[in-house]
Description:
Helices cover 31% and strands 23% of the residues. With 650 residues, it is an alpha/beta fold. It has a domain at 519-649: GMP Synthetase, Chain A, domain 3, CATH 3.30.300. The strands form 8 sheets. The protein has a 9-stranded mixed β-sheet with strand order 4-3-15-14-16-17-18-19-20, sandwiched between helices. Strands 6-5-7-10-11 form a 5-stranded parallel β-sheet, with helices on both faces. A 4-stranded antiparallel β-sheet has the order 21-22-23-24.
Amino acid sequence: MQGEFVWKPGDDYIKRSRLKRFMERHRIKDFNELILRSTDDIEWFWNAVMEDLNIEFYRPYDKVVDLSGGIQFPTWCVNGRMNIIHNMLDKYIDTPMQNRVAVRYESEDGTVTLISYRDLWMEVNRMANALRKLGFKKGDVIALYMPMTPQVVIAFCAIIKIGGIVLPLFSGYGKDALSVRINDTTAAGVVTCDGSVRRGKKFLMKPVLDEAIKETPSVRKVIVFRNTGEKVSLNERDVFWDEILKGESHIADAERTNAEDTLMLIYTSGTTGKPKGAVHTHCGFPLKSAQDMAHGMDIQQFDTMFWITDMGWMMGPWEVFGTLILGATMMLYDGSPDYPDMGRIWSVIERNGVTCLGISPTLVRMLMANGTGPIERYDLSSLRIFGSTGEPWDRESWMWLFKEAGKEKIPIINYSGGTEVSGGILLGNVLTPLKPTAFSGPAPGMAVDIVDDNGDSIRDAVGGLVVKKPWIGMTRGFYKDPERYIKTYWSRFPDVWVHGDFALVDEDNLWYILGRSDDTIKVAGKRVGPAEIESIVMEHPSIMESAAIGIPDPLKGQAIVVFCVLRPDKEKTKEVEDEMKKLIGERVGKPFMPKAVYLVNDLPKTRNAKIMRRVIKNAYLGENTGDLSALLNPEAVEEIMAIGTKKRET
């Protein structure tokens, strides 16, 4: 589909590969055999994964999985008892591992902090003791509303250690988004801070939280970390982080939870209706995170992973769980990725010896617009893996990262799944050759297929991405809403998880995601994914970003409208819009020529740089845009609304 192979693994990648060692241990000759065996015998595979990750249980499980409740509601690690924090911190103490760096943190002002496994364990224990003293116990939901500082990791682990249920919330949420999630879970507490720093300016968070929980009686205590030093008002239920830790012991027992006890509720962004709270357990999300990180990104104890994300998105918890289970180092950066200039990401890599960078296609396009100068200023020799998730790639951006930042030596491990999956459905690896924008195939353990509208398996054509067997990381349902969970994923075909992505497998058995099925455009009965249109648009030298949507059309059913952001040195002209229409019509066919092309200042996106096409569509059509609090740039929605209003009035 995308032409030639551009990266092939050399001996340096193959010899140190965790995936290769796993396959050799189980006498598996190649990747295709691994996928078949891992999905034909899921009990064998997930048991082998837990052995490979050295997961320790207080009481061993009697059976890997029990499907008596149906494929939609499996029980994993039956009768096993474990607290995942034991496998992230406790078991390393009094071993050589305790002196390794667990967390590297860089603040926006350039200060770097290192925290060893032992020091992190001690701080988690002190916070666990403080939480217990405040009256928190097993089963209590405690929300996290904090930026990406070491304290968010400490609180995250401490909540889980006492048997609590952590509710991670995006640090950029407004009061309404916070209120919906905190009230939905009847959270007993919140851990927050006075504020955060972006582009050298302080933004208060505590007052936003105060407004959100003004009428939330379930919240008994709010713990406030002094992050910026700004004065904040305290209510009677508020306590300061440093004060509750005074005199607390650095020794604390982990609650001996059941393997299937809930440890986290993590909500989707909620742009289409009420947010969905995915339920995750001790033996679910953490193990899938670590397995994907090991088998896909090849993360090992000497690696430092820097994934540009927030704790409120699944990749935040994913990074914490995965790196600590694997004994690696997580890199946290709290600040804007382009401050003080577009070289900031590359400077973080050089200063901290980052070996794996997780980045989105949208952020790459922002970096592209500023040329290669920022890259050339820094030594990126520590890098050996790029990871990418969040949205489909366009070829130009993928190749730019591969050539300019990776010097055609570093693989881009494409990763696609979701919050409810605990990681990836499709995944790259370091053992198989790569084409631009492609996935190596299904993540090991994922029984993935592509089907037509009747549910029949297809190849050489675009179809729906489905999963036909359960996996250990799948959500245990939506919080207090099992019917919505069944309707969302299991109602289309019997006993088949329909993920909502369109995908394709090419002649070399490489896989591609072409966009969300609810974003897919159907023109005169012919279906096209936004990514296919956007890939063509991105070939134009004037365009930095684009988003294609389908709008109602009385003749064709749907028509295509494209929104484009120009490169900084280009001017908005009618000629560019006309060139876009012509280019798309020539490349995809005249029926798919856009009805309109608009040049805009920005596209609505989340802080982890995911373009929100459904928000764009609703704004343009004058419909309800849903919850916008997760957006980095809500002003972009206003510009599109104005364009849509003007169009309807003419």
